[in-house]
Amino acid sequence: MATTESRDNGGEKSERPSAPVAMRKAAEQLSELLGKAPDSVSTLKASDDGWIADVEVMEIERIPDTSSVMATYRVTLDSEGQLLGYERTHRYARGQIDREERR
Known about the structure:
The protein has one helix at 19-34, and strands spanning 3-7, 13-17, 38-47, 50-60, 69-77, 83-93.
């Protein structure tokens, strides 16, 4: 597993997962909790304590596919890649063009 070094509060080195590993961990752990497969990871940012990822999930499948309901979940991982929390931040139709800047 690829890792990058970070420091914990005691000044000791700990291994933070690399960005690709953090993306997979965020998607896998959210999928396990929601019971739905993630569509993609749209944002990944390193934080002081680990990683923050935005994961896109199809919540309601419809025909045509462009009318399916999607959701963005913000996932917080600790410095070891374990999920600390998540929240749904946005819902939209799959075919919707994002006209406003999201945080």
